[in-house]
């Protein structure tokens, strides 16, 4: 191995001439021509001024280093180029001209090597045919000729390799390591990227090939027909060309396919895309109509961007584990036979609209996710929507409400095959819509009327969220069966409210209330439909009657909330008619006497003051009753309880008849009191209760706490103060506690039952202990 | 300014330039003496010139007659 220095300026570089080679820099010429083991060096001592080197194809070297002459430039000319077994370094590209059109062949040397041209614009082809050692770019590399990878590894590192075209189809073992670099192809009129034979080929990194041509004509890319994601390049058309992008053979495949800068037509043959798919937004761009399918075969999440262009080709989604997320509206057609087929993977409409003449499913695990997007099926016929392979077919609503709209003006069929469609099926065209299969939908609707929707007889169609078919006056939506037998529509709960339907052979069931309004037509053989308007849920607030009014009346037929209902001064009545369902009452204010009977659950507060007749509450459900006072010349607060409630603060004040609390169940009664000229304070207990603080004060008739049946009670604070009539604690005495006990009737001991101070002058206070 | 000293002793200054349509990923590979003689502005200018020359090359290639 030796170094060979170029001396003497202009001269040939071949295998034999010694005229320009020296063993030392600037030394005497006459050294032997370099071999593949010798480094060649062009430097400032190689020529005082500009000079020209003319290699031949017999030229050889190991490392090939060039820097400029003392002044001027060094030009590499001719039609032959050296074979290089080592590295290339052009350290001063500003003092170099490369007009040579030969073929620089990189052949094996003794070590890995680097090509650093400092992106000098070259005109030679570059052929990599090393076997053992790797060639790595040390800078961008640009040539107007061909890059051929025959054998070995070419590593782009992070740099741009620019060439006219790439030939990568040797069939030998070879690796193109993209790293984070890329290849920019400038060519046209030929196959600018060819890997028609992928045998022996390996890609690493992110294989990105950009086409920069911006003219007319044809640019061909051939990626072979042996579709493989691992061997797929990403193709990006950056040049604003009007050329036709052609395929080398139908069945080519790509990773990303990005037409974003293109202004011409796309390939017409079938091809497969494993990555993102982006159509151009530029004017002049077109997707060539073809019966050949575009297959999306991703196995991870990818995007599809149409930029407003329509694809008149069949589309197939077939990538196990793949997801395609629409970035904008995706339209297929208008040829009526074009079909979007889902074999495997997830198609995420992502809130966008996918429009296609036909839609079908194929074998595989597939999912249609809506996320508020729409699938619009435009064609007619028996398989417009054809769930031909329902096994492992799922749909996902995602965010928002998705729609499948059948828009043909001719008869069309939705072949659901019994799947669940978490979306709204829309009758969007004048042609009759036939639905086959016992399917489940989120909802069903129409955007045209009159129109017909026919279900398959003897099947049940289930709706999860709603039933929104609805016509207009004179434009009814006809609901019927395909054949002369009934179908079933089912929804689990809620109220369906629609109108302007013409319904035949339809059984509405499932638990929901099926109201079809006052303007629908009963065509016969129906069941479950209610041909009227539904009662609508209401909230009632602020119903007031003031001064000398007759009455304020609120009639409630269904669930409702009533608040703030009141009557003041000389009011006839305030009436709330209890509904057949739950009603919550709050804020009652009754200033005069009424008889009321609200019932239900929640918090009930009733008050009567002044000359009221009575306050009465009948409670038949769980509730808490507080603050039921009667004061003045009122009859009595009367509370009857038959359910688990707590009663507190029921009071009678003044000339009141009495306070009565009757308890039949487990309850606590506290603070029941009568004060003044009161009839009686009475708590009757039939169950396990804790009455405390039952009292009568002043001219009270009696205070009574009684236990009717045999059960545990705790009675405390029963007292009568002043002119009380009686203090009675009446319970059952167990004979075992006092073997000599026998029942004593009050009549047997009249002095015991009623003691007044006048009967015993010494009596001061008897405590019932 | 990021740079790398190569095994050969040369200084590699990688850079990326784009005009929206074309993007070049390249490096200035310079002898240390030259690198140290240049200011950062001069290096940036060299990078711009490199990119402009490359884009001109692409445009020239596009304007060339189709190669059959």
What's this entry about, in short?
The complex is a heterodimer of chains A (769) and B (68). Chain A has 769 residues and is mainly β.
Key structural traits:
heterodimer; A: 769 residues; mainly beta; 24-stranded parallel sheet; 17-stranded mixed sheet; 1% helix; B: 68 residues; alpha+beta; 2 helices; 26% strand
Strand content of chain A: 35-45%
Distance between the termini of chain A: 127 Å
Total number of beta strands of chain A:
82
* Extended strand count of chain B: 3
The radius of gyration of chain B is 15 Å
Average predicted confidence as pLDDT of chain B: 92
Distance between the termini of chain B: 44 Å
**Protein chains sharing the most extensive interface:** A-B, 36 and 28 residues
Q: Which class best fits the helix and strand makeup of chain B?
A: alpha+beta
Low-confidence stretches of chain A: 545-553, 555-637, 641-646, 676-680, 685-691, 696-718, 720-735, 749-755, 759-769
Helix/strand class of chain A: mainly beta
Main pleated-sheet profile of chain A: 24 strands, parallel
Binned, the helix content of chain A reads under 10%
Widest sheet: strand ordering of chain B: 1-2-3
Helical content band of chain B = 40-55%
Description:
The complex is a heterodimer of chains A (769) and B (68). Chain A contains 1 helix and 82 strands. The longest helix of chain A has 4 residues, at 750-753. Chain A has 769 residues and is mostly beta strands. The termini of chain A are far apart. The C terminus of chain A is likely disordered. Chain B contains 2 helices and 3 strands; from the N terminus they run βββαα. Chain B has helices at 32-37, 40-63; strands at 4-5, 11-18, 23-30. Chain B has a 3-stranded antiparallel beta sheet. Chain B is elongated, with a radius of gyration of 15 Å. Chain B starts with a strand and ends in a 5-residue tail after the last helix. The chains are: A mainly beta (769), B alpha+beta (68). Chain A binds chain B through residues 89, 91, 114, 116, 118-119, 121, 138-140, 142, 144, 158-160, 162, 164, 180-182, 184, 186-190, 212-215, 217, 238-241, 261, and chain B through 6, 8, 10, 12, 14, 21-31, 50, 53-54, 57-59, 61-63, 66-68.
């Amino acid at each position: 191995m030796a170094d060979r220095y170029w001396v003497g300026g202009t001269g040939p570089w071949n295998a034999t001439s010694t005229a320009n080679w020296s063993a030392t820099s600037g030394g005497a010429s006459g050294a032997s021509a370099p071999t593949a083991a010798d480094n060649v060096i062009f430097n400032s001592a190689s020529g005082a001024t500009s000079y020209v080197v003319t290699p031949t194809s017999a030229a050889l070297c190991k490392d090939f280093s060039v820097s400029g002459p003392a002044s001027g430039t060094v030009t590499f000319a001719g039609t032959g180029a050296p074979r290089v077994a080592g590295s290339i370094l052009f350290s001063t590209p500003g003092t170099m001209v490369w007009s040579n059109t030969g073929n620089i062949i990189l052949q094996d040397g003794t070590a890995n090597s680097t090509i650093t041209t400092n992106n000098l614009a070259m005109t030679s082809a570059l052929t990599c045919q090393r076997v053992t050692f790797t060639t790595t770019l040390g800078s961008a590399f640009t040539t107007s000729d061909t890059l051929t990878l025959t054998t070995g590894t070419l590593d782009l590192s992070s740099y741009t390799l620019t060439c006219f075209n790439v030939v990568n189809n040797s069939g030998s073992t070879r690796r193109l390591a993209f790293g984070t670099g890329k290849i920019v192809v400038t060519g046209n009129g030929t196959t600018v990227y060819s890997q028609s034979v992928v045998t022996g080929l390996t890609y690493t990194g992110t294989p990105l090939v950009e086409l920069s041509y911006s003219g007319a004509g044809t640019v061909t890319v051939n990626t072979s027909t042996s579709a493989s994601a691992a061997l797929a390049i990403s193709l990006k058309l950056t040049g604003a060309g009007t050329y036709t992008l052609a395929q080398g053979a139908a069945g080519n495949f790509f990773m990303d396919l990005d037409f974003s800068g293109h202004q011409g037509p796309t390939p017409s043959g079938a091809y497969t895309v494993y990555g993102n798919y982006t159509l151009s937004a530029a004017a002049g761009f077109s997707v060539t109509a073809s019966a050949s399918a575009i297959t999306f075969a991703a196995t991870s999440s990818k995007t599809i961007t149409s930029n407003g262009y329509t694809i008149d080709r069949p589309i197939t989604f077939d990538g196990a584990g793949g997801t395609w997320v629409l970035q904008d509206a995706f339209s297929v057609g208008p040829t009526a036979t074009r079909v979007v087929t889902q074999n495997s993977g997830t198609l995420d409409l992502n809130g966008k609209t996918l429009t296609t003449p036909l839609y079908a499913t194929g074998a595989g695990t597939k999912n249609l996710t809506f996320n508020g997007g729409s699938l619009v099926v435009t064609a007619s016929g028996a398989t417009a929507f054809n769930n031909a392979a329902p096994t492992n077919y799922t749909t996902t609503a995602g965010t928002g409400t998705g729609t499948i709209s059948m828009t043909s003006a001719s008869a069309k069929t939705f072949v659901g095959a019994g799947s669940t469609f978490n979306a709204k099926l829309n009758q969007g065209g004048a042609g009759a819509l036939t639905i086959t299969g016992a399917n489940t939908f989120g909802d069903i609707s129409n955007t045209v009327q009159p129109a017909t929707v026919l279900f398959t007889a003897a099947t049940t169609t289930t709706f999860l969220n709603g039933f929104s078919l609805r016509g207009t006056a004179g434009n009814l939506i006809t609901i019927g069966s395909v054949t002369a037998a009934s179908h079933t529509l089912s929804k689990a709960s809620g109220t369906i409210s629609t109108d302007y339907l013409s319904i035949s052979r339809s059984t509405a069931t499932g638990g929901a209330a099926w109201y079809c309004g006052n303007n629908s037509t009963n065509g016969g053989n129906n069941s479950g439909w209610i041909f009227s308007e539904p009662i609508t849920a209401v909230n009632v607030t602020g119903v007031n009657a003031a001064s000398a009014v007759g009455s304020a009346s609120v009639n409630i037929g269904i669930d409702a909330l009533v608040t703030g209902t009141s009557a003041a001064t000389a009011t006839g009545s305030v009436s709330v008619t209890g509904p057949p369902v739950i009603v919550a009452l709050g804020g009652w204010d009754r200033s005069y006497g009424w008889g009321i009977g609200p019932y239900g659950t929640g918090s009930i507060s009733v008050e009567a003051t002044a000359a009221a007749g009575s306050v009465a509450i009948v409670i038949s459900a769980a509730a808490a009753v507080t603050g039921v006072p009667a004061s003045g010349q009122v009859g009595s607060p009367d509370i009857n309880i038959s359910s688990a409630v707590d009663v507190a603060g029921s009071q009678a004040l003044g000339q009141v008849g009495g306070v009565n609390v009757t308890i039949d169940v487990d309850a606590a009664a506290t603070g029941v009191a009568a004060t003044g000229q009161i009839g009686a304070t009475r708590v009757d207990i039939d169950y396990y209760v804790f009455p405390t603080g039952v009292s009568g004060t002043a001219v009270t008739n009696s205070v009574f706490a009684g236990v009717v049946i045999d059960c545990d009670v705790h009675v405390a604070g029963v007292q009568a103060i002043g002119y009380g009539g009686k203090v009675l604690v009446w319970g059952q005495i167990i004979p075992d506690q006092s073997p000599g006990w026998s029942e004593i009737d009050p009549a047997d001991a009249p002095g015991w039952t009623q003691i007044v101070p006048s009967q015993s002058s010494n009596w001061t206070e008897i405590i019932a202990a | 300014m990021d740079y790398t000293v190569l095994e050969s002793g040369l200084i590699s200054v990688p850079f990326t330039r784009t005009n929206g349509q074309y993007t070049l990923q390249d490096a200035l590979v310079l002898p240390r003496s030259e690198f140290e003689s240049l200011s950062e502005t001069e290096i940036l200018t060299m990078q711009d010139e490199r990119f402009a020359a490359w884009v001109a090359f692409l445009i020239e290639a596009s304007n060339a007659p189709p190669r059959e």
